[in-house]
Design brief:
EC 2.4.2.8, PRTase_dom, binds 1-O-pyrophosphono-5-O-phosphono-alpha-D-ribofuranose, Hypoxanthine phosphoribosyltransferase, single chain, metal-binding, 3-stranded antiparallel β-sheet, Hxn_phspho_trans, alpha/beta
Length: 231
């Protein structure tokens, strides 16, 4: 079933929270559990950063599989067209680069830098453009690529801003949907995982500009956030 506005295509029914073993992560077709094996294999990376991680919410393997599936879906949906993927710096960089490699159609890339957060873990509610697109998008099929939609303030601003430039079409592909935190409704066309209301880092997402290089999506130990001045 295709649920436009949510962006899930489910063959085997909706993979829900209960089925997810309590981790609260949902993805297409099957639940992701917080599996200890993934955590253990992450620890085997022997990175000092891992001491700061309390939980792995989405493992590297699950991300890779989901990004491949999204790439196939987007390639099928845009067959015969040449979308421009707009990566939102900086968080979407890793997702965009993997998603791009999963596409089997022609596609171009541009970037915008938007800021809605300070260095803490709370939204400031202030959205501003730090870097605009290099090229016009009038008449183009535009796919915004974001790492996370949280309150929805950033993506709402982006949609309004980019729509005013008259693209032929405008869609959103987001890796993580933290739906519980939404302050305004937004339509998301492609979603990697729905996650619970936890502040997450890794695979491009930061806390105070750190942890973007973790290969998985994880949650930091509370004392790490306290020590670095967050909530
Ligand atoms: O839905 P919202 O509550 O608006 O939050 C989502 C936005 O917050 C993060 O960006 P951030 O400003 O932290 O910049 P970054 O991508 O450089 O980390 C994220 O990359 C989204 O753009």
């Amino acid at each position: 079933m295709w649920r436009r506005g949510v962006g899930w295509r489910s063959r085997g029914g909706w993979a829900g929270r209960a089925a997810g073993g309590g981790s609260g992560i949902m993805e297409q077709d099957e639940p992701v559990t917080l599996d200890r094996a993934a955590h253990a294999s992450a620890r085997a990376l022997a990175s000092p950063l891992l001491d700061d991680v309390q939980e792995v919410l989405v493992s590297e393997q699950h991300i890779a599989r989901r990004v491949q599936a999204l790439g196939q879906q987007i390639s099928a949906d845009y067959r015969g067209r040449e979308p421009v993927l707009i990566g939102i710096l900086k968080g979407a960089v890793l997702f965009l680069s993997d998603l791009l490699r999963a596409l089997t159609i022609h596609a171009s890339v541009d970037f915008m830098a938007i800021s809605s957060y300070g260095t803490g873990t709370q939204s400031s509610g202030v959205v501003r453009i730090l870097k605009d697109l290099d090229h016009p998008i009038a008449g183009r099929d535009v796919l915004i690529v974001e790492d996370i939609v949280d309150t929805g303030l950033t993506i709402r601003y982006l949609l309004d801003n980019l729509r005013s430039r008259r693209p032929a079409s405008l869609r959103v592909c987001v890796l993580l949907d933290k739906r519980e935190r939404r302050q305004i409704p937004v339509e998301l066309d492609y979603v990697g995982f729905e996650i619970p209301d936890r502040f997450v880092v890794g695979y491009g997402l930061d806390y105070a500009e750190r942890y973007r290089n973790l290969p998985f999506i994880g949650v930091l130990r509370p004392e790490v956030i306290r020590d670095q001045g967050g909530r």
